[in-house]
Automatic annotation (TrEMBL):
Reactions the enzyme catalyzes: L-tyrosine + 2-oxoglutarate = 3-(4-hydroxyphenyl)pyruvate + L-glutamate
Gene3D superfamilies per record: Aspartate Aminotransferase, domain 1, Type I PLP-dependent aspartate aminotransferase-like (Major domain)
Modification sites for N6-(pyridoxal phosphate)lysine: 290
EC number, as in UniProt: 2.6.1.5
Protein name: Tyrosine aminotransferase
PROSITE patterns: AA_TRANSFER_CLASS_1
Cofactor(s) for this UniProt protein: pyridoxal 5'-phosphate
Organism from which the protein derives: Triplophysa rosa
Subunit structure as annotated in this protein's UniProt entry: Homodimer.
Amino acid sequence: MSFVVKMNKSQSSSNHNNGMNGKSMNGNAVHHVSVKTHVNPDKMKSNKPRWTVRASEMSKNTLNPIRAIVDGMKLTPNPEKPMIALSIGDPTVFGNLPTDDTVLQAMKEAIDSYKYNGYAPSVGYQKSREAVANFYSRAEAPLESKDVILASGCSQAIELAISVLCNPGDNILVPCPGFSLYKTLAVSMGIQVKLYNLLPEKSWEIDLQHLESLIDEKTACVIVNNPSNPCGSVFTKDHLQKIISVASRNCVPILADEIYGDMVFPGRDFYPMAHLSSDVPILSCGGLAKRWLVPGWRMGWILIYDSNNIFGNEIREGLVKLSQRILGPCTVVQGALESILNNTPMEFYQSTVSFLKSNSEICFSELSTVPGLNPVMPSGAMYIMVGIEMEQFPEFQNDVEFTERLVTEQSVFCLPATAFEYPNFFRIVVTVPEEMMVEACVRIREFCARHYRPHSQDSNDLDQ
């Protein structure tokens, strides 16, 4: 290999005397020197940059249990029977539950105004936040616009609430069975999830003793979902007060997932948790998705209830900063929000709830008489949970296999409750048209009759 060596005049003279040839240029000398070098080819290869793109730890730790289970199921419907999907918590799927015309008109007017095509404040327009505050404010739990953070659906509201209350290494208490997103969000953020039991024999009330036993110095909040997904349960005022007492004794705030608030059947009442709390600070998450039947519009909110100033400015400021990562929810829906909240007729809400109750009663009545099944009658929301006496269906190891075969033979898809970490149950969504609900129950009955293998009393005695 050749190198060019440049030296000053004195160096050049000295080098010339040592027998090196060179030509002087402006007092400097340039010499061509030949040097034998040995370059290790392996070393050259190791110095070459390599692609090392890796997924983040957060993405690796993000897992939706429903998707993990459903994607692994072998779902091949019976080609001789049309598919009836009772698995998706979307009331718009079958077109039988449209939103009200006043809701659509509010959106049209927002679009036609040309006022909502730009960026809004990350926490939402002031006018929209005022509309939400006015809609939910009560004397026992007053709200102002500063107590409202708008979000891209209730799911994002829950994410913001968890993010502002928890640090990696903290834990949160989550209902079991419960909405799988709580765990999906928490685990991805390095937050431990502790599951507290709900009691099917008590209409899915919380096992309060179990709940309190899980609280420790690292518990950042208790999540309470009422009305419940997947259970369809609605807590009584007395039970809610007992939950609040547990939180109060242990100085733990509550994250109230109330997306199904007021979607309760006649004869039952919905009590927002904040209306019953005198000292426990509460972040209540809600939205338009379910009660107004527009889940795709992605409009949710956090209501900050903190009458004793326990959250103080820090939690509020934290929510504002976290909302700046997303820059707020859809501005057009925000523009329509005041009209949606104030002008939707009461008859629309009542009609929706009446339909859900009727379908729930059909489902419960039909499946209650199916040997091997134990449905739990709901009181609200859009779901009914059905217990499976797995020992009476020896062909199947668990609820996943049971529901998988139900699809194969009867083209009826119910979500196995293992997705909610509650095996040996399945969840039915009751938003389908009535005739479809009836047909699904007939098929489930046929399926169970084919596979039911009751243990005789004699065999039970032998087992003992």
